[in-house]
Design brief:
Chain B: Keywords: Cell membrane, Membrane, Transmembrane, Transmembrane helix, Transport. The structure holds two protein chains of two kinds. By secondary structure, chain A is mainly α. In chain A, about 75% of the residues lie in helices and about 0% in strands. Chain B is mainly α. A two-stranded antiparallel sheet of chain B has the order 1-2. The chains are: A mainly alpha, B mainly alpha.
Amino acid sequence: MEPRPRSFYILAVFFGLFLVFLYGPTITIAILSFQGPGGGLTFPMRGTSLHWFRDLFEQQAVGDIWGSFSRSLTLGLMVMVTTVVVSVMGGLAFRKRFRGSGILFYLIITSLVIPSILVSLGVGLIWSQSGLTVHWSTSGFGAQLTWTLPFGLLIMFAVFNRFDQSYEEAARDLGASPWQTIRHVVLPIIASSLIGVALFGFTLSYDEFARTLLTSGSYNTLPLEIFGMTTNVTTPVIFALGTLTTVFSFLVIALFLTIYWLAGRRRARRGSDAGKGLV
Amino acid sequence: MLSNRHLSGWLLAAPLALVLVVFLVAPIVMITVVSFWGATEWSIYPAFQFDNYAFLFGSEVTYRVFLNTLKYAVITWVFTLLIGFTVAYFLAFHVRSLTWQIALFLLCTIPFWTSNIIRMISWIPFLGRNGLANSTLISWGVIDEPLEWLLFSDFSVILAFVHLYTLFMVVPIFNTMMRIDKSLIEAAVDAGATGWQTLWHVIIPLTKPGIMIGTIFVVTLVMGDFITVRFMSGSQSANVGRMIQNDIGLLQYPSASATAVILLITVLMVIALLLRLVDIRKEL
C-alpha cells in the first residue's frame, strides 16, 4: 500500500474537529448534569452529585415528564410500525409505473421539503374546524407520518433499485404465487434494510417537535415538554433530562445497529449452501 | 380493461396515498382556504377576502423577514457545504477500509437520530456570558470583557443550523462519492493531474447530484425552521417561521395561513430551480 499523502493528515484533523463540534456540546451537558445542588447552567462544577437526576423523579420539580416520555415512546412505536409497513408496500408499488405514480412521487418529495409548521398548522386547522379534538395518537400520529414516510420510502427506493429481479423470476418459475414470492423471497432479502426504516421511523417520531406542536393536544410529547422547560427551568435539571433522553436515543440506535449486524451475520452463515450437496 | 399492473400498484400504494392526502394535501388546501378568511381577536370566520395578503405584502416587515430567512439559508448552505463536502471527501477517498468508512460514517450520522432541541440546549454552557468560550478567551487574554454576541444572536442561530444540518450534506455527498468509479481518478492521476485538479475537474463534477440533494435538504430545513431561530436568538431575530408562529400564538390563523402559503410557494420555487439541475430518482 502506498504511503498516505500529507492531505490525509490534514483532513483527518479536520474530521476530528468536526466530531468534536458534533459531540462536544452533548458531552458538555452530560458532564454538567452531574452538578452539585448549588451548581448552575455553566462551569465551574460546584461539586458532583446525582441531585438533578433525582429531581427528575419529583413531579413538582419538572412536571409530567414520565407521562410525556411514555406517550412519546408509544407514539414512536406506532409511527415505526406504520412507517415500515407503508414504506414496504409503497416501495413494491413503485417498482412498476402505474397511473398516478408520478404525482405520488412528487407528493412524497413535497412531504419531505414542506416546512413542518405548515403540516402542524394545516392539520390543526382541519381538526379544529371539523370539531375534532387534536390528540397525539390521531392528528399528531398522522402529522409525524408525513415526516417519517418520505425517509422510509427513499430507503425502499434505494433498496429496490439494487434488487436483483432474477430471484423473483426463479420463484415464479418454480410455481410460487405472487404473495409467496414476496413472503418467502423478497421480504427475507430486504429484511435488513427494514431495520433501517424502523430506526428512522422511531427516532424521527421520538424527537419530532414542529409537526407535533399544534397537533398533539393537551397531552405533551417529550420534545414538547422539554421545550416548555427551556422557557421556565433555569437549573441543570434540564441538562439531566437532556442527557437521559440522549442516552435513551443512543441505546435505541445501538439496539437497531446490533439487530442489523446480527441479521447480517445470520444471513452470511446460512446464506448459501451452494455446492454442499456435491461433497 | 384496467390492466393488472395499475391495479396492484394502486392497492400497494393506497395506504401511502391515504396518509399523504389526509395529512399533507388536505392541510395545504385548508391553509390556502383559511388564508382568505377573516379573523376577530378570538375567532376566525369563513370569507373570501384578500386582506391577509394585502397586509402581508403591504408591510415592510414582511420583506425584511423573508430577506432574513434567505440570509440564514444562504450562509448556512455555504458552511454546511464546505464542511460536509470535506468530511465526505475524507471518508470516501482517504479512509481506505470499508469497515472504517462505515464506522466513521455512522459516527457522523448518529446525532441525526437524537433530539434537535437537546442539541440546541447543549450550546448554552459554551456560548453563554459565563460560558466556556468566553472564559477560555478571557483566560488566554484575547478579550477583557465577555463577548455578548455569542449566544442569542445571528451568530448562534447559524452555528446551531450548521451543527444540526451538516449531516444532511455529508450523507448524500458521501453516497454519491462512494459510487464514483475509482479508475476515473487513477486515469486523471495517470494523465498528470495534480490532487487539486483531480478534485476540481473530476470529483466535484461527479459529486454534483449529491451536493444538490444536500442543498435541497439544508435550504428547506432552514427556510421552514422556527424553533432554532426562536431558541438560539432568544426571540431577538425573526424568520418566516417565527412570523407564522407569532400569528398562531395570537390566534390569527388566517394571517398565519397567508404567510404559510407564501413561504410554501417560495420554498417550492427554490426546489423547482434546484431540481432542474438534478434528477433525484436516478441518484438513489
